[in-house]
User: Fold these one by one.
Assistant:
Number 1:
Amino acid sequence: MHPTRRDSRIRYPSSQHIKLRRILLLAADLPFDHVTPLEGCPDYTLYRLRGAPPLRGLGCRSVGTRDDMTMTREQCEKFATIWAEAWNHRAIDAVLEHFVEDVVFTSPTAAAVVGSPVVRGKQALRAYWTTALRRITSLHFTVDRVLWDPASRELAIVYTSEINGSAKRVSENLTFNEDGRVVTAEVFHGV
């Protein structure tokens, strides 16, 4: 039996596993080179990576010069789906894996949680999200669409946020560096 979207048995790798690049949760439609199932695990669960390159900016690729980092529509949709699934499972480290250490994150919710709408740095962002998640009893993000601006390397994930029984439309705009990692993020509510 393959796990479903809301299957509580799905576990994301710890940050230590991510740093060591030893395990990764993959879905059936996410092929990577050098990936084999762990012994005793069914297909599409945990895999061991042997000789795989770093997994920065999942779905991003560099075309031509380093300034030409771009994403296809399919890659944008795949990134957004994985991003939403990580949030739906409250896997903060899986979300943060795509961010640089000195990320700048802006959200109106941050002002209510940490006293400022701007959060600077990955550790501060982890602390903000951890505190915010403690206040939330139910959370589910459903991606509605994605928009990619190759000139600014900005991905807008437009989604429906269902938190504690209340739904609203949100846009999370992520700007990537030339290595495919998020350097800035802005959240807009009521889009």
Number 2:
Amino acid sequence: MSFTLPLDKLTVEEKLRLMEEIWADLSRNPDSIPVPEWHLEVLREREQLVKEGRAEYLDSETFKKQVAETVALDTALRKRFHGEIDRMSPSRLAVLQRVLLQLQLLEATDRLDRDFDRDRQDGKLSPALIEQAVREARAAHPHS
């Protein structure tokens, strides 16, 4: 069965109500919803982390409480930081920009380290492959 909904003519409220009706209908038969393999893989990885003691399960009430506390703190911090930024001089804003760039660099470095470790564990990196990549980078950027 194929049909087209006039989504561009629906209000946001109508779209949300439609989504709720679809969700309620799907929820009546959850076993009929296919589970993608990558969902199962994520669950297996998380179960392994719990077995290794590197993660733990939370009951829903504890989880909800932690989320609420995080959102409240985030909201309070955002209000405070916006007020502070609005009062900063241009020279202070330049310093803040440098701090933010350093934070982004740290985050990128952490992400690269995690990706590198994962690829090494998965056997995607070997000394020969790393050496080849270094040679190619040096050839592409001889003045580095």
Number 3:
Amino acid sequence: MKGIKSFPKNSWIVLANRSVQLWLLLIFINFIGHSVIFTKIVYIMSSIKVKKILIDLKGVQIPWFPQAKKQTIRIPLQKKVTESGEKKEVEPKDKIVFDKIIQRDEEFGQPYLPIKLIAEVIKNGRNPKIHGMKYKSKKRTKRTWGHQEPYTEIKIEKLMAWDRQKNLVHQEPYTENREE
């Protein structure tokens, strides 16, 4: 298996697939309680190239493909709370942290994986207008309506593994080497 260099080839950890490896090591961590083993898990997770990540954002599942070049994602409009308690739209160059990651390739969290994504806001905008109409023949009734959904466009910068219970990052920020 690519990316695992710290374990010998005849080790039982190499024989299992990636999700089973992670599951067994997490059980071992809960049993022993050492963070040294968790850093080995982080090494295994970071050394494997990620193909797809699924983010949960207010009930909306947003896919992200790290292999895509210059990929930006449109998500529902994001707001931040100011010190005075007001809600304002996020501004370009602001950072957003996503900690509710549902899926990473074939690995599924229960409910979430121990991963954080850090994204930079590119712009806020509105999608093209959707026009609709209701019409009843021979009744002289017609109703038209329109709707424009606001969005926030982001670019994901960093993928980090972290311990949800202790709220600690166990690794330097991991970024994919993409040619842009």
